[in-house]
Q: What sequence folds into this?
């Protein structure tokens, strides 16, 4: 087993897979940050704007939530002629993740009592000020566990990008795997890929559980 490990995980292979892991993490962070911003805008429109833009936001959310991520990766990567393949893959992930986060944020907005609006408006706050300083801080405090869970999902979803040859963690593992035919060597690569995802996602899961316990203690 030690011989198999040393044969597979040479310095060059380890470096190659590590670059893939870094790309996975950087993509995940970028996608989550942009998706939180865009998803919050969508949630605000769907919750408080009941006319054209609210309906448009609702249509967007329902379309992306009820269609496969892989479909949008293929659409963005093969039908958009601009940008690198990595940017187009990140765009697909962002469009999809924004719809999921929009529903998470909308749930948080609905958990804030309507009396908060009335009290703020009675004190001379504008709608934007009420949202920025009163509603959204409470909303995000309530949805942090759900957002962290979505971050975990997004990290795993980056593995879909390997179908369009984006050199993220899974793709880099498959490239290394193509150099070997021995079953034990292939199994070793699969194991390392699984362990890599597990360590990252389990660590974030521990953060989620710790935060949830802290909230329960406060309450």
A:
């Amino acid at each position: 087993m030690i011989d198999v490990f040393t044969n597979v995980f040479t310095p060059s292979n380890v470096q190659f897979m590590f670059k893939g892991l870094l790309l996975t993490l950087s993509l995940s962070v970028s996608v989550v940050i942009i998706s939180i911003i865009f998803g919050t805008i969508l949630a605000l429109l769907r919750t408080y704007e009941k006319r054209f833009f609210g309906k448009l936001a609702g249509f967007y959310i329902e379309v992306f939530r009820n269609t496969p991520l892989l479909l949008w990766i293929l659409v963005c990567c093969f039908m958009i002629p601009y940008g690198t393949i990595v940017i187009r893959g990140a765009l697909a992930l962002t469009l999809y993740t924004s719809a999921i986060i929009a529903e998470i944020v909308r749930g948080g907005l609905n958990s804030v009592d309507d009396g908060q609006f009335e009290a703020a408006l009675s004190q001379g706050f504008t709608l934007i000020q009420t949202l920025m300083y009163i509603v959204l801080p409470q909303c995000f405090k309530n949805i942090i566990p759900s957002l962290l869970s979505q971050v975990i999902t997004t990290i795993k979803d980056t593995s879909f990008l390997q179908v369009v040859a984006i050199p993220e963690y899974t793709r880099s593992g498959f490239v290394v795997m193509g150099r070997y035919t021995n079953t034990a060597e292939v199994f070793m690569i699969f194991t390392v890929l699984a362990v890599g995802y597990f360590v990252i996602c389990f660590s974030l899961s521990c953060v989620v559980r710790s935060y949830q316990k802290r909230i329960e203690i406060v309450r």
